[in-house]
Amino acid sequence: MPASLQIDRAREILKRYFGHDTFRPLQEEIISESLEGRDVFALLPTGGGKSLCYQLPAILEEGLTVVISPLIALMKDQVDGLNANGIPATFLNSSLNKTEARKRYAKLFAGEYTILYVAPERLMLSGFLDDLKQWKVSRFAVDEAHCISEWGHDFRPEYRQLSNLRRLFPDLPFMALTATATDRVRTDILTQLRLKEPRTFVASFNRPNLNYQIETKQAVFQQILKFVSSKPYESGIIYCYSRKATESLADRLRQNGIEALPYHAGMTPLKRAENQEAFIRDEIKVICATIAFGMGIDKPNARYVIHQDLPKNIEGYYQETGRAGRDGLPSDCILYFSPGDVAKQLQFIADKNNHKERDVATQQLRQMVHYSESSECRRKVLLGYFSEEWTEGNCGNCDNCRNPKQTFDGTLPAQKFMSCIFRVNQASGFSVGINHIVDVLLGSKNEKVLKWRHDRLSTYDIGQDYRRMEWQAFGRELIRNGYIEQNAENHSVLELTRKGKAALRDRTPIQLTQPSVAKAASQRHQPSSTGGIECNEELFAILRTLRKELAAEQGVPPYIVFSDVTLREMARDFPIDEGQLSDISGVGIAKLEKYGDTFIEAIKEYLDTHPEAGIDELEPSFR
Ligand code: ADP
Ligand code: ZN
After folding, report:
1. Average pLDDT of the segment spanning 242-248
2. Ligand 1 centroid from CA 237, angstroms
3. Among 100-109, 332-341, 345-354, where is mean pLDDT lowest?
């Protein structure tokens, strides 16, 4: 079939089975290359729509598409989702009993499935590869392909078996998909899977619907409570540093009437699975978790990810925040930052025995602190970390772009700060930490200052024009900008760098961020505004309840029934017949048949009791 016809059919299937009108970036290209029989390597961020890249060709072409996935827990949900869209799919893994497995094998031999999910272990079972040969496989898709690399963060030895697969099926198209791959992992994937002249697609890692925000951490529980309470209908993830913190935060939230549960690696697997399940099924609002939570969580409508404590590195922060808004709707990522957290983590790092580990951890923490304290666009810094350039200027969806921080000519305070470091060292022959420098600048009479006679320095008590928090912020900014070095090996004492000494000597002009300490307390959260779907919130709430009931009846997570996007569009457009309903994104033929009447009924009932709803929502300008 000519390529153009193929892609026309692909679009038709997109609408008919998945209910979507347009492809996400690169999906069309990836699908079309694979349909031409070429190997494809696709690097798409979380929420980029990787599954569709192999699911759609599977429907379009004869034969069976075999998907290798490491996440057994996810297979069932994926298959439920496909079945709900009328696509014959199944999975094989160790969770099935003998009878069930036998039934599925029989259907596989009879060619009744379009898609089969398997765990990589399965490929090692004797006889499985021979069976595969008889199932008219048309394509292999390797999901989470980074698991094949020892250089990745999630190496699975079983993935190494996949090179055999290529040997046995030299002519079938392979797809490798992942959301995380450094250059090294990328090369590994290509060679280990023996991909043949693969077409490589790398999507931007920008997540336009995510609003990044850093707030000063003060009375953090109140800050979190206020935010969570402001989103009564939404759910989200709160990451905490320790297991204990997840438990106590969940407890306190519950005491304040918010359904929350903890999740961490110290809980029994059963309890963990239960809490995760409750979150995915919208039975609770908030999950308070350590970083153990997330891999393989496929909840598309987490509306916010909060970091109560400072993450250890940017990569982790990006992955964790990435779990918000997979469905593309506006979602918030809030990090509560405090210099105290930095000091705490530096202390942990200093306790590590291994030199190399210590260096890496310090370096990573420094990047994280830089990100948090920077006055640049958050998006720009994040993408820069992944070697992607952000050229669009103001992103409009991070705190720094919405409220640019003011800078001022900070040459004088910078000079005072740096010369204080210099004087202390000159007089005492040792270096001190940031707090001591600030003590000297503010003319403190504390024990150390007096004992070391730092009250006699020329820089003693010359800092009355700023407050303690402000001096500390200046100090950290000078560190960030390379004028001062903080020695992690030696109690975080401050030393002037070569750049700092030169600036001190030459009186180089230095810009500093205008102190915003006073403002921080009253800083209000700003709702995100990018790409949202404004709708009748009351009807949306009704439809959500309906969705939850249907999902519970069928024993599937609510998002398998309909996504938030779909429900919001319904509550915006008020579809009251099948034609109108099928125009809604996410409503394919199968779901139209299965749920159409129920939802149309609910919308009609709402319109009957609220006759004004359909009109004034849509045409406010006529009133
Ligand atoms: P990934 O695996 O890359 O994180 P998924 O395959 O889980 O992403 O897709 C994320 C979400 O995007 C899902 O809710 C899916 O239904 C939706 N999606 C995928 N492709 C499209 C599309 N072309 N149009 C609208 N929504 C889409
Ligand atoms: Zn920005």
Report:
1. 96
2. 20
3. 345-354
Q: Please tell me the number of the ligand nearest to residue 319's CA.
A: 1
For the 537-622 domain, the top CATH level (class) is mainly alpha
Query: Which ligand has the minimum distance to the alpha carbon of residue 562?
Result: 1
Sequence ranges of the chain with CATH classification 3.40.50.300: 3-202, 210-402
**Does any ligand 1 atom lie closer than 6 A to the CB of residue 423?**
no
Task: Indicate whether 23 pLDDT > 90.
Answer: yes
Domain with CATH 1.10.10.10 in the chain: 407-515
Could you give the residue ranges of the DSSP H alpha helices within 325-397?
Answer: 339-350, 355-373, 378-385
Question: CB burial class (10 A; 0-12, 13-18, 19+) of residue 579?
Answer: exposed
pTM above 0.90, yes or no: no
Q: What per-residue confidence (pLDDT) applies to 621?
A: 39
What count of other Cβ atoms lies within 10 Å of the Cβ of residue 430? 10
Q: Is 413 in the pocket of ligand 1 (CB under 6 A)?
A: no
Segment 22-41 shows an average pLDDT of: 95
Least confident interval from 2-11, 384-393, 396-405, 452-461: 2-11
| Pocket of ligand 1 contains residue 476 by CB under 6 Å | no
CATH code, residues 3-202: 3.40.50.300
- Residue matched to tokens 């490929």: 123
Q: Which residues contact 404 (CB under 8 A, 6 or more apart)?
A: 375
- Whether residue 20 has its Cβ less than 6 Å from ligand 1: yes
Assign domain 407-515 to its CATH architecture.
Orthogonal Bundle (1.10)
Average pLDDT, the chain: 90
Residue 614's pLDDT band (cuts 50, 70, 90): low
* pLDDT grade for 520, boundaries at 50, 70 and 90: very low
CATH number among 3.40.50.300, 1.10.3720.10, 3.90.1170.50, 3.90.550.10, domain 210-402: 3.40.50.300
Distance of CA 22 to the CA centre of its chain: 23
Which residues of the chain form CATH 1.10.150.80? Answer: 537-622
CA–CA separation, 142 and 439 (whole Å): 58
* 3-class DSSP assignment, residue 413: helix
